[in-house]
Amino acid sequence: MQRLTSVVFWFLVFGPFVYGQLDYKFYDSTCPNLTKIVRFGIWSAMANDTRIAASLLRLHFHDCISNGCEGSVLLDKTSDFSSEKDANPNRNSARGFELIDTIKANVEKACPKTVSCTDILTLAAREAVFLSGGPFWSLAMGRRDGLTANMSAANTDTPSPFEPLENITAKFTSKGLNLKDVVALSGAHTIGFAQCFTFKSRLFNFDGSGAPDPQLDSSLASSLQTVCPNQDNSDTNLVPLDSVTTAKFDNIYYKNILNNSGILGSDQALMNDNITATMVINYSKYPYLFAKDFGASMVKLSTIGIITGQNGQVRNRCNIVNQN
Ligand SMILES: *[C@@H]1O[C@H](CO)[C@@H](O)[C@H](O)[C@H]1NC(C)=O
Ligand SMILES: *[C@@H]1O[C@H](CO)[C@@H](O)[C@H](O)[C@H]1NC(C)=O
Ligand SMILES: *[C@@H]1O[C@H](CO)[C@@H](O)[C@H](O)[C@H]1NC(C)=O
Ligand SMILES: *[C@@H]1O[C@H](CO)[C@@H](O)[C@H](O)[C@H]1NC(C)=O
Ligand SMILES: *[C@@H]1O[C@H](CO)[C@@H](O)[C@H](O)[C@H]1NC(C)=O
Ligand SMILES: *[C@@H]1O[C@H](CO)[C@@H](O)[C@H](O)[C@H]1NC(C)=O
Ligand SMILES: *[C@@H]1O[C@H](CO)[C@@H](O)[C@H](O)[C@H]1NC(C)=O
Predict the structure, then answer these.
(1) By residue range, what is the domain housing residue 103?
(2) Whole-prediction pTM value?
(3) Is residue 315 in a domain?
(4) Does residue 16 sit in the same domain as residue 130?
(5) Residue 62 annotated as catalytic
(6) For the purposes of burial, counting CB atoms within 10 Å of the CB of 68, is it exposed (0-12), middle (13-18) or buried (19 or more)?
(7) 277 CA distance to ligand 6 centroid (A)?
(8) Protein residue with least CA distance to atom 14, ligand 7
(9) Are 108 and 30 in contact (CB under 8 A)?
(10) Is the residue at 13 inside a domain?
(11) Which residue from 22, 79, 110, 293 could staple onto 184, CB 3.0 to 4.6 Å apart?
(12) How far is residue 131's CA from residue 128's CA, in Å, rounded to a whole number?
């Protein structure tokens, strides 16, 4: 009994370090101002460009969903590997790299060689949501940075707005997420913008019908047609994913879907399955349910394929692996 108590005691004291787990107090003594530094960095950037909030949330999602949360999306290409920045889901659309580099530099000044880029990006996504008026969730820290990027994983693992719901769900479940996570995390589209090419196929000749997608509200379709005319040079024009409260993190995204005002085919497709449709209705009615579930899904997302303990490294700069 004495022995068992002592084993349990040592496990509780040293478990998180010995077993390389994440810890809510991970940086409490080594970088007590970490959250403040990250929050101030995001706040300053949003004062100039509110869209950066959605960009950071997407960057974190793209990091975690392919090969785990290990900061691989932040790496520039080298002679050893291609970058995830250049993968199809990220090229000409991923944003926020310079901001993460700036925040990392500020963190290095306060606590050198201590905080991983992956933890910074994870915190940045939370702060971006919180500062946009959305929920707050507690995050355990201690993720380490990976040593390589994997462009082909970024291409195959990242969900795309051109895929059916089943394919998107399969990508989530292969990472340990579930259907509820699909619906809750889709709520991230309550902020941010989409380039026209990501939904243009819904506007003019949907499935060869010669008309817009019948699941797209007709007056919304007309206004989207003016921003995204049927010619290639409109492909990169931007449209808000939630035109009602574009920069506010709320549950209006789900209300929009209920009245056929989802912008991406993959947004509106949540209504084509009874289970996901019920969740959409729930989230449209109960903002607190959405806030709670979104936070819980973000915590799950932030632990996919993490590197802890002595594995990986704490990068000095987020865009390059340390040389030593
Ligand atoms: C944390 O920031 C405060 C100012 O906001 C500063 O006074 C303090 O020295 C900082 N602490 C550390 C450990 O860097
Ligand atoms: C302000 O935001 C714009 C994008 O909207 C960006 O190009 C510019 O670099 C930002 N300026 C600063 C000082 O961050
Ligand atoms: C990159 O990802 C692909 C697809 O997930 C995988 O097959 C491959 O083994 C990975 N390559 C490396 C070097 O990890
Ligand atoms: C969806 O997944 C199936 C099975 O993996 C695949 O054959 C199909 O090409 C995918 N569809 C799209 C649009 O990616
Ligand atoms: C759809 O719902 C949103 C949010 O309730 C509302 O602002 C918008 O006007 C509605 N659009 C249509 C076409 O009914
Ligand atoms: C989904 O709901 C429709 C009615 O809205 C019903 O006809 C159908 O059987 C349901 N499908 C499943 C799989 O429950
Ligand atoms: C919708 O909300 C109700 C009441 O909170 C809950 O019982 C039900 O399980 C939810 N449905 C889905 C599909 O999440």
Answers:
(1) 2-158
(2) 0.92
(3) no
(4) yes
(5) yes
(6) buried
(7) 11
(8) 279
(9) no
(10) yes
(11) 293
(12) 5
Is 98 touching ligand 2 by the criterion CB < 6 Å? Answer: no
Residues 85 and 231 in one domain: no
Report the nearest atom of ligand 2 relative to the CA of 99: 14
The closest residue, in CA terms, to atom 5 on ligand 5 is 255
Give a yes or no: residue 97 inside a domain.
yes
Q: Relative to the alpha carbon of 114, which ligand is closest?
A: 1
Catalytic annotation, pick one of 51, 62, 85, 171: 62
Is any atom of ligand 4 closer than 6 Å to the C-beta of 167? yes
- 249 assigned to some structural domain: yes
| Nearest ligand 1 atom to alpha carbon 111 | 14
Please tell me whether residues 200 and 126 are part of one structural domain: no
Which of 105, 123, 158 is at the close of a domain?
158
Q: Is the CB of 302 under 6 A from ligand 5?
A: no
145 and 190 housed in the same domain: no
Whose tokens are 């007056």? That residue is 219
Provide block-wise average pLDDT over 10 residues at a time, the chain (324 residues).
42 42 96 98 98 98 97 97 96 96 98 98 98 98 98 97 97 98 98 97 95 97 97 95 97 98 97 98 98 98 96 97 88
Closest to 252 in 3D by CA, of 287, 220, 277? 287
244: Cβ below 6 Å to ligand 5? Answer: yes
